[in-house]
Specification:
Distance between the termini: 22 Å
Structural class: alpha/beta
CATH superfamily: HAD superfamily/HAD-like
Number of strands: 8
CATH architecture: 3-Layer(aba) Sandwich
Number of domains: 1
Radius of gyration: 16 Å
Shape: globular
Bound molecules: magnesium ion, zinc ion
Number of helices: 6
Largest sheet: 6 strands, parallel
Mean pLDDT: 94
Low-confidence stretches: none
Length: about 190
């Protein structure tokens, strides 16, 4: 059995641009808008070196909402993989939930089992890659990531920039870190591998 670190994408690996229209952090919808966050490459390389599978699990309803195309998502994956490879880091797999309950594109309009906070993406990856979920982690910047990880039996680490306040009980009960690199170091320290 393998152990994995599941990684949310936007706000963890790459910057999540602020969408002023929807008043929330969103996914980048242009290649130029894709920027790896500081320390992400080093963090993923560290996890690679210590034999943790690195698996992206991300809600990407952009196609369903007609904000981007499926080929664009593929291009972004290539950009992400190339950016990481330049520093000797790699992702073992990428899993996206493409659905949304209010999708404008009918084929993606559904209440699915894979949109976080549901654990479907993690369960699918565990099945495909022989992952022992109880010895695995999820690192994300949203409570949806934390809840999906807990539902799958993983240990969550919540990335929470210092500026953002958290008052919910889940936040208080969860390990937190200020970046992916800090989270990876915390995880490896806890496992006695750093
Ligand atoms: Mg996120
Ligand atoms: Zn889904």
């Amino acid at each position: 059995m393998n152990r994995a670190v599941f990684l949310d994408r936007d706000g963890v690996i790459n910057a999540a641009p602020y969408n002023t229209e929807e008043e929330k952090y969103d996914s980048p919808y242009t290649l130029a808008g894709f920027r790896l966050l500081p320390g992400a490459k080093v963090a993923i390389r560290l996890l690679n070196e210590k034999n943790w599978l690195t698996v992206v699990v991300s809600n990407q309803p952009g196609v369903a909402k007609a904000k981007c195309s499926a080929p664009f998502l593929e291009e972004l994956n290539e950009r992400m993989r190339a950016g990481l490879a330049a520093s000797g880091a790699h992702l073992d797999a990428i899993y996206y939930c493409m659905h949304h309950p209010e999708a404008v594109v009918p084929e993606f309009r559904q209440v699915c089992q894979c949109r976080k906070p549901r654990p479907g993406l993690l369960l699918a990856a565990a099945d495909d890659l022989q992952i022992d979920l109880t010895s695995s982690y999820i690192i994300g910047d949203s409570l949806k990531d934390v809840d999906a990880g807990l539902a799958a039996g993983c240990t969550p680490i919540l990335i929470r920039p210092r500026s953002r306040k958290g008052d919910r009980s889940t936040v208080n009960a969860t390990r937190t870190a200020t970046s992916l690199l800090a989270a990876a170091k915390q995880l490896l320290t806890k496992e006695g591998e750093l």
